[in-house]
Amino acid sequence: MDPLIAAAARALAAGDPLAALKPIALRDDAPALALRGIAMAQLGDLGRARELLGNAARAFGATEPVARARCNVAEVEIALVLRDLGRPMEGLAAARSTLEALGDRVNAAHARYLEARRLLLIGRLDEAERILDRLDAGALPMTSRAGYELVVAGIAMRRIRARPARDALDRAESAAARVGNAALKAEVERAVQAFEAPAARLVTGDRERLLRLDEVEALLASDALVIDACRNVVRAGTALVSLAGRPILFALVRSLGESWRGHVSRERLLRRAFRAREADESHRARLRVEIGRLREAIRPVAEISATERGYVLVPHDAGPVAVLAPPVESEHGEVLALLADGEAWSSSALALALDVSPRTVQRALEALAEGGKAEWFGQGRARRWIATSVPGFPTSLLLPAFGVAD
In degrees rounded to 5, what are phi and psi of residue 99? Predict the structure, then answer.
């Protein structure tokens, strides 16, 4: 190997990008371009890093498929940090296949971990777990091992499994400590803080209490009928009724759940579900129709009884009713929950992660910006969005996970 390239590679492995740049800063051959790209990524200039790695991949060409695939994988890793989760990801599977076929186990395993990380970010937990099941974790370098454990922890947290999440975070902390990289340690610390922060609120009438993830898990495992306002579902044991996409029905069942020991007046239900300040007969007729639809929807887990003044929620079992809500509720809370991870997101990546249209996300971002809760930088496709203030953000741990049978 070229001694200057070897020296730069050793410096990068030791986490010293400035030392790595000294012998190769003026070179434009493919290996030098690749190492310069990695060095710029370590220095935080991700745009320049992507450009250099793309140039290196083209310079390697078809005659050096392993080197080219490694550059492609590095480009994808930068795209993940930039929350550019769409088109830049398309070549990852092909790069991984090339690395596996040509015997580069370390970088192939790293590519598979990146696939799982992307799937976690967009809520595809089942697919992410399948990727991890086929991953040889022992082949990962220690820096990637910490990231791998963060993905394992992230899946466990989104599935509301506190003990496996805590164990994975412990392993991530251990791996980060062995590497000694400050940025990696900070990433692990942010994940630990997210795990230890309140994950939800328990709402009962006019009383509220913040819950940690393990307390949420215990609540879902109890005999309570849980009205889950984080995912818009009603749970009772293993039975689950989804009201996602039916906001009026969920608003009604939530109101009934918050006052389940007594009736809820028709006037209150009209204000909550229809935002009707002064109800007329058309509102009351619509309420009767929607209550009928709600009765049918939640029949597997509960009944709704009419009283002289309103309605009462009656679970099939004798257990209590609990309403589970995000720690902080605000309009466009799901968008804020993703922005609060400290990274800069593109609107297209947010739309992909939330499984909604780009226009829906754009309207939410504009509203958040007007309210001083989000801000942007860059122009056109390079525009990125961040949360302006992290304290009090709604948790991302209980965001809906697509393709998950709870």
Answer: -65, -40
Q: Find the Cα–Cα–Cα–Cα dihedral 90, 92, 93, 94, rounded to 10°.
A: 90
Domain covering 333-387 in this structure, CATH number? 1.10.10.10
CA neighbor of 326 nearest in space, from 314, 342, 338: 338
Query: Can 201-325 and 333-387 be said to share one CATH topology?
Result: yes
Q: How far apart are CA 56 and CA 321, in angstroms?
A: 59
Q: Which helix (H) or strand (E) holds 176?
A: helix 162-179
Q: Which of 143-147, 275-279, 311-315, 331-335 has the highest mean pLDDT?
A: 311-315
387 within 8 A of 393, measured Cβ to Cβ:
yes
- 0.85 exceeded by pTM: no
Are 371 and 339 in contact, with CB atoms under 8 Å apart? no
Tell me the H-state helices in 259-384.
Answer: 266-274, 281-297, 333-339, 347-354, 358-370
The identity of residue 322, as a single letter, is A
Low-confidence winner among 65-74, 104-113, 387-396 (lowest mean pLDDT): 387-396
Fold type of domain 201-325: Arc Repressor Mutant, subunit A (1.10.10)
Q: What's the rounded Cα separation, in Å, for the pair 66 and 103? A: 9
Tens of pLDDT, residue by residue over 145-169, are 999 999 999 999 999 999 999 999 9
Q: How far apart are CA 190 and CA 260, in angstroms?
A: 38
Q: Hey, what's the torsion of the CAs at 340, 343, 344, 350, to 10 degrees?
A: -60
Q: Coil, helix or strand for 242?
A: strand
With a CB cutoff of 8 Å and minimum separation 6, the contacts of 87 are: none
In this structure, are strands 321-325 and 225-228 parallel, antiparallel, or unpaired? parallel
Query: What is the fold, at CATH topology level, of the domain defined by 3-196?
Result: 1.25.40
Q: Where are the domains of the chain?
A: 3-196, 201-325, 333-387
